[in-house]
Structure formats: structure tokens, C-alpha cells
Design a protein that fits this description.
A hairpin with a 2-residue loop joins strand 6 and strand 7. The chain has 2 domains: 60 residues, Ubiquitin-like (UB roll), CATH 3.10.20; 82 residues, no CATH class. The two termini are 50 Å apart. It is an alpha+beta fold and 153 residues long. The protein has 5 helices and 7 strands; from the N terminus they run ββββαβααββαα. It has a 4-stranded antiparallel β-sheet. A 3-stranded antiparallel β-sheet has the order 5-7-6. 40% of the residues lie in helices and 27% in strands. 7% of the residues are buried.
Amino acid sequence: MTDFRICDECGEKMLPETTEQKFHFNGKDIIIKGLNVYKCQNCENIVYTSDEAKMIERLIQAFDSKPAVDILNLEETAKYLRVSNQTIYNMIRDGRIKAYKVGREWRLLRTDIRAYLEESSNNTAYKIAAKGGQITEHDKAIICEEIKKRNND
């Protein structure tokens, strides 16, 4: 028994087939090959399967979203981590964060920053900046929550 649907346009049978479709998006033509659709034998109306419609929607969202800058300078990194420029210099110097000198300026990869945050969130030995400072369970909870937020950025 062949799987089919009824066309909303003319009421005739729509049979499954594989096709390619061209989409015009943000001034570009995008061709997707191998789409599973139902095509009307009478009026040639096309209906996408639910899986294909979801995939097309995800592709459109991917093309529509602006990617984050992958390379940050020192000031952008400090702002991202909500610390001072000096703190970033210290982190570079002691090897906590990877950085690359380009000319006279430092460049940091967002992936390296995220890796540092991930490593820090997995480290149970929290570091206190103030001499002789004590950390409470409440402080630990705040730190963990902030790390989770930053990992989601």
C-alpha cells in the first residue's frame, strides 16, 4: 500500500518523492537536495514531511543568527569575564588562559575562554582573591550559578 496525502489545493492524491528545492534567503539562493516531500499529481503542489520542515526551519535559523565573534581582544575578554584588564594579563601570564600575541596586542579565542570556565566550574577548590578570605556555601552557590550563566553565553 502506497503512502499518500490529499492535496489541500485541488483535493487530488499527493505521492511521496525525493526532490531538491531552492530557497532564496538574505540575498542568497540555497539549494537543498534529497528532500522528502509529498507532491500533488494534478497541480504539483508540494508539502514537506514534518522532519524536513523542522530541518529547513533549523537551517533558516542558523543562517539568520549572527555568529559570535570567535576572537576577542584583551578588553573584550575582560568585559566578557567581568574582570579588569590586569586580571586578564595575570591570567595570561600564569597560564590559566591561552592567549596569542598579534603585533603588540593580545588575542584570545572564545573557545579557550569557555574551556577555562568549564575547567574552573569542575574544580572544587575555589580560589579567593582577598587574602585570608573565607568562602561559604552561599558563596559557592553564587559562583557556580555565575559560571553556568557564562557558559551559556
